[in-house]
Amino acid sequence: MYKSLRTNLPKPTMELKDFPLPEDAPSFMTWETVYKYIQGYVKHLEKHIKFLHNVILVSREQNAWKVKYQNVITGERFEEEFDFVFIGTGHFNKPNYPDIPEEELFTGTIIHSHDYKERDRYKDRRVLIVGAGPSGLDIAINVVNVAKTLVHSHHFRAPLKTVFPENYIRKPDIKEFSATGVVFEDGSYEDIDDVIYCTGYQYYYPFLDKSCGVEWNQECVKPLHKCIVNINQPTMLFLGCISRACLFLALDAQVRQDMLRR
Hints:
- By secondary structure, the protein is α/β, with parallel strands linked by helices.
- The chain has helices at 31-43, 134-143, 247-261; strands at 53-61, 64-71, 77-82, 85-87, 94-95, 109-112, 126-130, 149-153, 168-171, 174-177, 181-184, 189-191, 194-197, 201-202, 215-216, 221-222, 224-225, 229-230, 236-238.
- The protein folds into two domains: 11-93 and 202-261, FAD/NAD(P)-binding domain; 97-197, FAD/NAD(P)-binding domain, CATH 3.50.50.
- The chain is built from three helices and 19 strands.
- It has a five-stranded parallel β-sheet with strand order 6-13-7-8-9, covered by helices on one side. A three-stranded antiparallel β-sheet has the order 1-2-3, with no helix packed on it.
């Protein structure tokens, strides 16, 4: 999470049931407040969590779930069987990079919003931000006050309500890169030093074997009942396969719904 991050949802939509947020927390909280809140919630669950272990493979064999995992420190591998498997890795981990012609020619820097930490490195630079979702707008607002020029490429038809300073330049989608800049779909060109892709994330479950009975690609997981239950193997459930929701409350509701089913 980046240094200046604040929630874009008010406090009540970030509160888990039966675990209240601090009363003195502001309506739109800093990342530090949210992080400490999550840490506090995890404390009473730690005894049930196996930290520093990476899941390698989940497969369905003889009416049971076999899970292979590895200790990331020692490299030691293990295998266990389970009756139910919850896949809770969500889809905000693997960045989605657009495929733009001639990107390999560009001599400046390119990162994804996943790796954005602070704005100081962009002081007096010509910065291109691609995308106008929540992270694209948030980072644009953050960077525009230090950048020499902030070029914002997106295809939203409705005008943005944010009032930007004069060094902000709105552009359509990118047509292609050059060594020192970008050509846009309208034929215009801008010199660019740095690019920040704010282009979302991919669904990514490389540890799921074909025997699990689900298919996934960067855009979806299927077949799932109500975006949760593996239709082919109902004892496998997915949490967080949603993109537009108050995520804290949605995840909490998904877990409680699944517990009621059990």
